């Protein structure tokens, strides 16, 4: 409950001096297959509640599941992209527990026979350090419905007047990706956690298997954290040999930033308890985005027994090796390698590339370059005004641009107008403002606002003559060979021309007349 | 062509189908005759939980219309049928014999029901059963037991006692059943009717309210082997809605039933099924049947299936385990009964679930849910569910070994004739033992059939013989069943059901 007082926490650096953190991350990903995991219902997000249901996903008596082949393919592709082994034969299993938003009161999942197991994902941190995350397994399951608790203060079932259940989400294919204990990250553990989820998101997006929208719940993260006494550097053999401590599982941490914050918070909270001689309760914790703390959820105990057994209504999944190899052939370039390739193609420095990656603009720039812009211009324009405004709105650049209808083709067109000599830099900025304001394409905005470099050499020459005449001392300096002084005259010429002149041409003319 | 009896309810489905095809009778006439019979005798037998008079007559009119219009129709078009209440019927109540589904009107048809409708079989109503098919007597129905037409004080078998008693009391010429451990075959045996449990996956399970998914199999029930084969052909076949459905054509069961030929077949008598615990009269009729099969040209040998001894124990771990999970969905949230706990203000979802399940499930269902929940619990799983699965594999091996030597196996269907209502209600183990001969086939997924073998000398009640075949070789059941049936009817001088009490319904005219 939100009224709970915050727990004591230890200063993070102090905690790191005394303890070594170990993490485990469980990420649930909703696949964006056209239909659900075990029936033909559509999976669109945001539909009228209970409009995408049938006897199967409502768990009506007598209904039976049939596996969505596409979902199995996606699961195998995810497994392969995570460098996993793919099971030659595996089964679904029933996970039995009662909950109103679970129609059958069991979830059809996988237990000891996951479709993919034993893999890894190399994750690059902001400074370029690479951390290898070992993957325990990736398995297939179905999502539950969604409960909405009406009344009460917390939005939780406790204290609610009544609850509504929407079964549209029930039966949507999920892949759960579970890491092995992530050891050796030391004080960088929170950063590693965030980088892993971020890298996983990029990978899944590149695979085109999920919307991976954390804010809509199509990607959800549970973070397990435990501490053990610090006896050496994170990767020292002695440190790695220390047994793991009791862990807590923080549920539904649903943004990249929160993943980092929640892990960091739990480390500080565990440290305070352990340092005070207390012990950690094995439990689930709720993450509170607003206050940045976790509060106690369910206590995990032996009483929590899901009574797994093989799902008798489904036949085993047994992908042939040919199928697996064919699917391997459909894998996209791994995001890490792809970035290295793009950086080299575009001629960016490491720092420039990192800025682009952190801004989430890699794809936008790639498409802009494909539409004809130079890599330099594409970066300059996307990371300028659009990126600044997106940040101001708290949105990622892709979502923000899509919302405004700003496309890579627009940026390429804008760059084309500059290179063709129609617009100078400041005019181009005005045109971009117009495009962001919804006034149309760059050409249309330039036309409507009458923005165009004056191409009439006569007018420019007259302006140059006028400025030289008005500044005899500056003109004399230039005649004496002080070419740098031309800048002062160019500024005045541009003013005369009301900005609609090509500064380069003005410079040429001034120098020609005075040398 | 056989002439139809004046009382249409005494006719076989095959004869009715012929007469309907020749347009000498209409489906409305046949359907109405059965509705009249139901009105006259079901008060005594209690076979039906719901009679759909209007629906059945509407379907009958529709099929008569299609026939008049010259449409080509299925072999059983116009022949009415009773459907076990475990199969969902769109717009018609489906209770599974449980209080927890009282008032539930399914929004969809089971695949089997869709096939019946498409084939033009008017559905007379839904037949009684033990709650969620758990039982061998119908005494576990929340709506009261059905009665055996041979002796109304006795059980008609279970769980499909509604369907068996419907047939034996001439309230329908055909019925559907489901068989998880004998629920088609044992009721057939104790009522002198015929029932087949097809190969697992031979008939779609979509729309069958699941008891134990890996054991459940829907199948046909009739009064003759040919009628049963005709219905088998309608019900069977691949269903993309059931992942465990076999993707192959229905075996040639009708052809086999018509040929009725056992010459050159090798028949194995299962040594472990038929010794101690089998009623002498049941055993005697079985031995005579085996002798008859030999006379008909089959070679008979004894076969041992040593692991059958453990079948009952394994079955009563696997079935409750799966059932405990399958029955979890009955939680008052979306359909069926909802009971609010007494004395609780603003009860939680959990409290409503608990109160509903407490009020809605009967003792036998609760017993098996508790058993299954225990067997699947961590720490017990390997010892119980795990061991049971190993036994299951051994039983399948016994069948494989036997079928490497013989074409079919035979045994008595049930160890005894029908017991008295109430006799075994307080002793679950005695009730469970009734299925000792039928359970191995469910564990291995192989097909089985029961046909009448005669009346036991001690009590004059029906006994049955069970025929078992290898998976997907269902047609062998019909070859053997039809040949033996013909020889037995010849010996008896007419169908055995002619000797059953008429129940004082419409004058029972004997078939010509
Ligand atoms: Zn659905």
TrEMBL record, chain A:
Q: Which UniProt keywords apply?
A: ATP-binding, Ligase, Nucleotide-binding, Protein biosynthesis
- Keyword Nucleotide-binding listed? The answer is yes
| Record-annotated Asn/Gln amidotransferase domain positions | 363-514
> What catalytic activity is recorded?
L-glutamyl-tRNA(Gln) + L-glutamine + ATP + H2O = L-glutaminyl-tRNA(Gln) + L-glutamate + ADP + phosphate + H(+); L-aspartyl-tRNA(Asn) + L-glutamine + ATP + H2O = L-asparaginyl-tRNA(Asn) + L-glutamate + ADP + phosphate + 2 H(+)
| Membrane-traversing stretches | none
Q: Which InterPro entries does the UniProt record give?
A: Asn/Gln-tRNA_amidoTrfase_suB/E, Asn/Gln-tRNA_Trfase_suB/E_cat, Asn/Gln_amidotransferase, Asn/Gln_tRNA_amidoTrase-B-like, GatB, GatB_Yqey_C_2, Gln-tRNA_amidoTrfase_suB_CS, Gln_synth/guanido_kin_cat_dom
Q: How does it assemble?
A: Heterotrimer of A, B and C subunits.
Function recorded in the entry: Allows the formation of correctly charged Asn-tRNA(Asn) or Gln-tRNA(Gln) through the transamidation of misacylated Asp-tRNA(Asn) or Glu-tRNA(Gln) in organisms which lack either or both of asparaginyl-tRNA or glutaminyl-tRNA synthetases. The reaction takes place in the presence of glutamine and ATP through an activated phospho-Asp-tRNA(Asn) or phospho-Glu-tRNA(Gln).
- Member of which family? Belongs to the GatB/GatE family. GatB subfamily.
What is the protein name given in its UniProt record? Aspartyl/glutamyl-tRNA(Asn/Gln) amidotransferase subunit B
Give the source species: Terrabacter tumescens
TrEMBL record, chain B:
Cite a single Pfam family from the UniProt record: Amidase
What protein does this entry describe? Glutamyl-tRNA(Gln) amidotransferase subunit A
The kind of enzyme this is, by top-level EC class, is: ligase
**How the protein assembles, per its UniProt entry?**
Heterotrimer of A, B and C subunits.
Q: Which organism is it from?
A: Terrabacter tumescens
- NCBIfam families xref list: gatA
**Residue ranges annotated for the Amidase domain, each copy included:** 29-477
Instruction: Show the stretches that span the lipid bilayer.
Output: none
- Identify the keywords attached in UniProt to this record, alphabetized: ATP-binding, Ligase, Nucleotide-binding, Protein biosynthesis
């Amino acid at each position: 409950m939100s009224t709970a007082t915050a727990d004591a926490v230890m200063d993070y650096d102090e905690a790191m001096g005394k303890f070594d953190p170990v993490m485990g991350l469980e990420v649930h990903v909703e696949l964006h297959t056209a239909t659900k995991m075990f029936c033909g219902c559509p999976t669109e997000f945001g539909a009228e509640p209970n409009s995408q249901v049938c006897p199967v996903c409502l768990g009506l008596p007598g209904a039976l599941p049939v596996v969505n082949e596409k979902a199995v393919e996606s699961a195998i592709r995810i497994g392969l992209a995570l460098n996993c082994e793919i099971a030659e034969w595996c089964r679904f299993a029933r996970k039995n527990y009662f909950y109103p938003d679970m129609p059958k009161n069991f979830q059809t999942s996988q237990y000891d026979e996951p479709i993919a197991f034993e893999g890894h994902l190399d994750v690059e941190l902001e400074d370029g350090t690479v951390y290898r995350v070992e993957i325990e397994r990736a398995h297939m399951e179905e999502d539950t419905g969604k409960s909405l608790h009406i009344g009460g203060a917390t939005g939780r079932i406790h204290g609610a007047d009544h609850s509504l259940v929407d079964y549209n989400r029930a039966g949507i294919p999920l892949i759960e990706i579970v890491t092995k204990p992530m050891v050796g990250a030391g004080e960088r553990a929170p950063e590693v956690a965030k980088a892993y989820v971020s890298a996983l998101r990029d990978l899944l997006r590149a695979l085109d298997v999920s919307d991976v929208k954390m804010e809509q719940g199509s990607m959800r993260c549970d973070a397990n954290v435990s501490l053990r006494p610090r006896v050496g550097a994170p990767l020292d053999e002695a440190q790695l040999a220390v047994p793991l401590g009791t862990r807590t599982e923080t549920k539904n941490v649903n943004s990249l930033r929160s993943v980092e914050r929640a892990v960091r918070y739990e480390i500080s909270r565990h440290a305070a308890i352990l340092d005070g001689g207390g012990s950690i309760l094995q439990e689930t914790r709720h993450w509170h985005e607003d206050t940045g703390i976790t509060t106690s959820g369910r206590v995990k105990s032996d009483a929590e027994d899901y009574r797994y057994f093989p799902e008798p209504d489904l036949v085993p999944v047994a992908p042939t090796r040919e199928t697996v190899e064919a699917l391997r052939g459909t894998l996209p370039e791994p995001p890490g390698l792809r970035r290295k390739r793009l950086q080299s193609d575009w001629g960016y420095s490491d720092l420039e590339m990192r800025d682009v990656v952190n801004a989430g603009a890699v794809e936008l720039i790639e498409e802009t370059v494909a539409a004809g812009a130079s890599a330099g211009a594409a970066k300059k324009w996307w990371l300028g005004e659009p990126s600044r405004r997106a940040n101001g709105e708290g949105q990622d650049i892709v979502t923000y641009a899509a919302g405004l209808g700003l496309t890579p083709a627009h940026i390429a067109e804008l760059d084309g107008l500059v290179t063709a000599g129609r617009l100078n830099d400041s005019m181009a900025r005005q045109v971009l403002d117009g495009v962001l304001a919804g006034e149309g394409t760059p050409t249309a905005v330039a036309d409507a606002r009458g923005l165009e470099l004056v191409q009439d050499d006569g007018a420019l020459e007259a302006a140059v003559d006028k400025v030289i005449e008005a500044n005899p001392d500056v003109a004399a300096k230039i005649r004496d060979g002080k070419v740098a002084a031309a800048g002062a005259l160019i500024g005045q010429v541009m003013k005369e021309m009301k900005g609609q002149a090509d500064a380069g041409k003005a410079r040429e003319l001034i120098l020609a007349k005075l040398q | 062509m056989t002439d139809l009896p004046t009382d249409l309810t005494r006719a076989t489905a095959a004869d009715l189908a012929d007469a309907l095809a020749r347009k000498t009778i209409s489906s409305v006439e046949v359907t109405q005759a059965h509705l009249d019979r139901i009105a006259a005798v079901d008060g005594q037998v209690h076979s039906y939980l719901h009679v759909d008079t209007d629906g059945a007559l509407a379907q009958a009119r529709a099929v008569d219309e299609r026939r008049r219009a010259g449409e080509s129709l299925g072999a059983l078009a116009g022949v009415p049928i009773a459907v076990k209440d475990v199969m969902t019927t769109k717009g018609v109540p489906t209770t599974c014999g449980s209080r927890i589904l009282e008032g539930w009107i399914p929004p969809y048809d089971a695949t089997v029901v869709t096939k019946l409708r498409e084939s033009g079989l008017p559905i007379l109503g839904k037949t009684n059963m033990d709650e969620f098919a758990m039982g061998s007597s119908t005494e576990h129905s929340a709506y009261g037991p059905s009665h055996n037409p041979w002796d109304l004080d006795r059980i008609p078998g279970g769980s499909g006692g509604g369907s068996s008693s419907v047939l034996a009391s001439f309230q329908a010429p055909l019925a559907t059943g489901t068989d998880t451990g004998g629920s088609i075959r044992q009721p057939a045996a104790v009522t002198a009717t015929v029932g087949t449990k097809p190969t697992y996956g031979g008939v779609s399970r979509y729309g069958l309210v699941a008891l134990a998914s890996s054991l459940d199999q829907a199948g046909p029930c009739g009064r003759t082997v040919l009628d049963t084969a005709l219905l088998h052909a309608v019900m069977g076949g691949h269903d993309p809605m059931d992942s465990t459905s076999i993707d192959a054509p229905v075996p040639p069961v009708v052809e086999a039933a018509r040929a009725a030929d056992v010459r050159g077949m090798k028949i194995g008598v299962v040594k472990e099924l038929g010794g101690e615990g089998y009623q002498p009269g049941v055993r005697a009729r079985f031995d005579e049947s085996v002798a008859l099969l030999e006379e008909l040209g089959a070679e008979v040998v004894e076969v041992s299936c040593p692991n059958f001894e453990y079948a009952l124990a394994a079955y009563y771990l696997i079935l409750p385990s799966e059932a405990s999970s399958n029955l979890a969905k009955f939680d008052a949230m979306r359909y069926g009964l909802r009971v609010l706990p007494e004395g609780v203000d603003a009860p939680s979802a959990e409290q409503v679930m608990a109160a509903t399940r407490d009020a809605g499930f009967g003792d036998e269902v609760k017993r098996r849910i508790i058993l299954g929940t225990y067997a699947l619990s961590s720490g017990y799983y390997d010892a119980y569910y795990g061991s049971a699965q190993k036994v299951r594999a051994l039983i399948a091996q016994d069948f494989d070994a036997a079928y490497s030597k013989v074409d079919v196996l035979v045994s008595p269907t049930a160890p005894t004739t029908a017991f008295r209502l109430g006799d075994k209600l307080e002793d679950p183990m005695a009730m469970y033992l009734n299925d000792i001969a039928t359970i191995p086939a469910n564990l291995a997924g192989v097909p089985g059939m029961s046909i009448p073998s005669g009346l036991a000398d001690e009590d004059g009640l029906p006994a049955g013989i069970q025929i078992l075949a290898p998976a997907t070789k269902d047609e062998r059941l019909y070859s053997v069943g039809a040949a033996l049936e013909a020889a037995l009817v010849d010996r008896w001088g007419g169908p055995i059901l002619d000797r059953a009490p008429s129940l004082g319904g419409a004058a029972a005219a004997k078939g010509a």
